[in-house]
Automatic annotation (TrEMBL), chains A, B:
<comment type="similarity">
    <text>Belongs to the NADH dehydrogenase family.</text>
</comment>
<protein>
    <recommendedName>
        <fullName>NADH:ubiquinone reductase (non-electrogenic)</fullName>
        <ecNumber>1.6.5.9</ecNumber>
    </recommendedName>
</protein>
<dbReference type="InterPro" id="IPR023753">
    <property type="entry name" value="FAD/NAD-binding_dom"/>
</dbReference>
<dbReference type="InterPro" id="IPR011992">
    <property type="entry name" value="EF-hand-dom_pair"/>
</dbReference>
<keyword id="KW-0472">Membrane</keyword>
<keyword id="KW-0560">Oxidoreductase</keyword>
<keyword id="KW-0274">FAD</keyword>
<dbReference type="InterPro" id="IPR002048">
    <property type="entry name" value="EF_hand_dom"/>
</dbReference>
<feature type="domain" description="EF-hand">
    <location>
        <begin position="346"/>
        <end position="381"/>
    </location>
</feature>
<keyword id="KW-0809">Transit peptide</keyword>
<keyword id="KW-0999">Mitochondrion inner membrane</keyword>
<dbReference type="InterPro" id="IPR054585">
    <property type="entry name" value="NDH2-like_C"/>
</dbReference>
<dbReference type="InterPro" id="IPR018247">
    <property type="entry name" value="EF_Hand_1_Ca_BS"/>
</dbReference>
<dbReference type="InterPro" id="IPR036188">
    <property type="entry name" value="FAD/NAD-bd_sf"/>
</dbReference>
<keyword id="KW-0106">Calcium</keyword>
<dbReference type="GO" id="GO:0005509">
    <property type="term" value="F:calcium ion binding"/>
</dbReference>
<keyword id="KW-0285">Flavoprotein</keyword>
């Protein structure tokens, strides 16, 4: 959260100082690795810099899409009196998403991790308006966002409306990535929203109750009690651990006759769970899960989900069907369609702009040398390029190009614009393998969803410059690896701290409690979360089916 | 709750002492005033009374339908080792329903008022089994109940199953009574279940958010912000008061631009709200509501609810349409179809039995004198008759017959069995006007839903006698008027205490807090409810749309 606040602080601060940033469209494009840069200018560079809003007859319209980590951090640090601010989001609250796995089993209540967005924006100086609606189309040409109000039988008409903007902040969050696996949307639970966590909770209890009905064969009982988690990342692992604790500590006692039939299975396509963590943590987690009877299936790829079973193939292409009672799909995040179409619309233009700047001899192709010269700019515009290079220990763009094409490339080979686009697209497709840890999912959330247009090429206005440089510096600072947590159940947490420090066990769990309590967005939610933990210590988790 | 426990204690105690009550079917028929009496005997009066279960090879099967007040109180006081107990209910928890109005606005959380039924039955000696399913048919001839498991895509087949019983306790609760008004089921919220309260809460926030959308005319905003409560009984009044507090204390601050457009309307068919309370309370409540701007429409009967508006007629038959954003329908309770059909199946037999006993001269008709002679028995079998007579200040059955037929009847007129049934049916239809107060809705819940067969006619076994006499005494004790509360909002409550004591104001509110805290079913829920109240005092109510 600190990172998140920090970077959006950057944007906010810049906006504070520059009440007339010359028609820069600030974009926080939310996607699963597809970062995008964009700006719009109507070439009024000559506009005088007016620092007091009194002389400005009308405030600029700033529209913020989304009330997740990005949108909320941005809003909290913005001077509301300088802009005419309109927030649009399908949820009228901010949710502390890192605690969602705790909500699935009632360790923390859903309501304790949400804060009404109106309470947050009420503290701003000026009036900040909020609309509970979903943006389904961004029209950058006419500077409009098309929105649809949440369904409601009492609303007249379709509930569609249009909001004009001068500046737009897109912070809509990502959606769960199903890799287009058939049946996932229909039969699996995701763990992205508060409602998802509530549904999972009800579904767990439903499965237990179903297994308790009379006249069921043991096979049917086992099927109902087979909980499957697809994806061995931090969210999946944390949920598996929470579920295991819930079933052994709380539920087992009151469902004595089915206790021994419950089975939790984690399906992971890679060779290890928690693969983005240090090997020691991975090994500890795998051993702990094995001891506790949590079945970890490594190297299995899910190919289909039906209403009865999950179909998966292992690396030897053997097909296995696993009947299930409940599946949670947690394999990472993907780009929302609205963002994707927006990116497609404007992304190409941007890459062309970089290409033209880099192509100093106007040859229509770039030498590797020419690319190296603009690599700094590329990394600023597409921060994922830098992250990618770093994560793969690559020396520079040559490695990147080799990686993209899969064969050795000579340094003097020239690139056409299509090849250049292909290399960047490759980075985009790979960037999802970067750490997306549970504890720092706020960091993650920002990192994978962050894209900014840097108008350093065309626009040299002082304001624009200050703004964008600050934002980019924030972004780079943001991704410093400041530590990750992976709660493993049984009051044990694995923590990966800077400087190759690894801490696993009960002490890390207490560190986790402290960090999560301190990172709450308000004193109210902090008090509620802490009192939920206390309630859990005293009374255990509730297992009512509501 | 004391009353509830008391009466079910009675049943439980009797069952404890008599481990072989001769095939008496104990029926706690749940209905909106339709009390029913029934028993089944297979004439094995000679069976020896066995007090120790060791000599009995197989325990009798006791099936309890429902986990509301009646079912839970019964279970809590039953010796689980004496019977083979199976509980069937669509909800795997007990809910403290008197706090439902508080849940609608987040004064108390839904989860704080529920206790898993498995936790309650775990404390019993023997094994008590529970199935989450709904009973849809009772077959008294074959002593079976037909059940349907809660819908679930992963359950094979239809989810139907059959449970055998020796003794059956029906405590399924009533359903909301719509008086067959068109559109009520489709467009109105009820306030009977925990889920209802949660839906109402979301709907209130939805209405506020809808009214905040851009491009709405003031008329449309007002429509979305028109909250209607149909029914001026204690539940409706308490909900109206809670809603008013929520909107003024918590929501108004963060929705400043629509604060003044909100309107709460209570529609009551009678001449006063809270008509079952003392006149001083009614007057105080009506004046308080008027001061606070809550619109109370007296003498209006709702004839239709469409998706846009409520249609109602006043006493002069003038038709009014009231556009609304949300309606809560709270006009009392009715009989569930499964109970109704069961009652129809066996009720007729029972009335015939009474008739035959009363008809000493076998004339086929009853003189009023003959009825007077068995009035005591009638009142035992149909407790609502006694309540009804008492509530109307009637001297005896003559008044009742007059009331039923609407004209004077001579004392020497004789009644055919059809006329006798008609008179009893009239009582059934009228009994819903008896007090059904919010505070003592546990009492209410029991009172209107309580029916027991009293096998004093046919079966004189010691066991049966002990059991039924105890139960009936409990029932009569239960209805002693031991006080009612009507929370009116703004930390004020009206209390009607025994001996014509009326207390209205803040002190009664504190009495209310104490009583409700003390009446919680477990220490866990008690702690949760109290901490919810404290949270509310400190942080206010949450207004997130979840």
């Amino acid at each position: 959260m600190r990172f998140a606040s920090f970077i959006f602080d950057g944007v906010s601060q810049a906006l504070k100082r520059n009440s007339m940033v010359p028609k820069v469209v600030v974009l926080v494009a939310v996607s699963g690795g597809g970062l995008i840069a964009y700006s719009e200018s109507q070439s009024d560079h000559g506009a005088s810099i007016v620092r007091s809003s009194e002389t400005e007859p009308k405030k600029k319209k700033l529209v913020v899409l989304g009330t997740g980590w990005a949108g909320t951090s941005f809003l909290k640090n913005l001077d509301g009196s300088l802009y005419d601010i309109q927030v649009v989001s399908p949820r009228n609250y901010f949710a502390f998403t890192p605690l969602l796995p705790s909500v699935t089993c009632g360790t923390v209540e859903a309501r304790s991790i949400v804060e009404p967005i109106r309470k947050i924006i009420k503290k701003k100086n000026g009036e900040v308006r909020f609309c509970e609606a979903e943006c389904f189309k961004i029209d950058p040409v006419n500077k409009k966002v098309h929105c649809q109000a949440n369904a409601g039988s009492n609303l007249n008409g379709t509930g569609e409306f249009v909001v004009d903007y001068d500046y737009l902040v897109i912070a809509m969050g990502a959606k769960a990535n199903t890799f287009n696996t058939p049946g996932v949307v229909e039969h699996c639970h995701f763990l992205k929203e508060v409602e998802d966590a509530q549904r999972i909770r009800r579904s767990v209890i439903d499965s237990l109750e179903k297994a308790n009905l009379p006249n069921l064969s043991e096979e049917e009982k086992r099927k109902n009690l087979q909980f499957v988690i697809v994806g061995g990342g931090p969210t999946g692992v944390e949920f598996a651990a929470e579920l295991h604790d819930f079933l052994t500590e709380d539920v087992g006692k009151i469902y004595p006759n089915i206790r021994d039939l419950v089975r939790i299975t984690v399906v992971e396509a890679g060779g290890h769970i928690l693969s983005m963590f240090d090997k020691r943590i991975t090994a500890f987690a795998e051993q702990k899960f094995q001891r506790e009877g949590i079945d970890v299936k490594l190297g299995y790829k899910v190919t289909k989900v039906s209403d009865k079973a999950i179909t998966m193939v292992d690396r030897a292409n053997t097909v296995t069907d696993l009947p299930y009672g409940m599946v949670v799909w947690s394999t990472g995040i993907g780009t929302r369609p609205v963002i994707r179409s927006f990116m497609e619309e404007i992304g190409q233009e941007d890459i062309s702009a970089i290409f033209n700047v880099a192509d100093k001899d106007n040859s229509g192709t770039l030498t590797v040398k020419e690319i190296q010269d603009v690599l700094g700019d590329i990394c600023e515009r597409y921060p994922q390029v830098q992250l990618y290079l770093k994560s793969r220990d690559m020396r520079g763009l040559v490695d990147l190009l080799n990686d993209a094409e899969g064969n050795e490339r000579k340094e003097n080979r020239e690139l056409s614009i299509e090849e250049f686009k292909k290399a960047l697209a490759h980075v985009d497709s790979q960037v999802k393998f970067l750490p997306a840890t549970a504890q720092v999912s706020f960091c993650t959330c920002i990192h994978v969803c962050f894209g900014l247009h840097v108008p350093t090429y065309e626009y040299t206005d002082e304001e624009a410059d200050t703004l964008t440089v600050m934002v980019l510096q924030c972004f780079r600072n943001m991704y410093k690896h400041l530590g990750s947590f992976a709660p493993l159940g049984g009051e044990q947490t694995a923590a990966e701290l800077p400087g190759d420090w690894i801490s696993i066990g009960h002490s890390s769990q207490w560190l986790w409690y402290s960090v999560y309590a301190s990172k709450q967005v308000s004193w109210r939610t902090r008090a509620l979360v802490i009192s939920d933990w206390m309630r859990r210590f005293i009374f255990g988790r509730d297992s009512s089916g509501i």
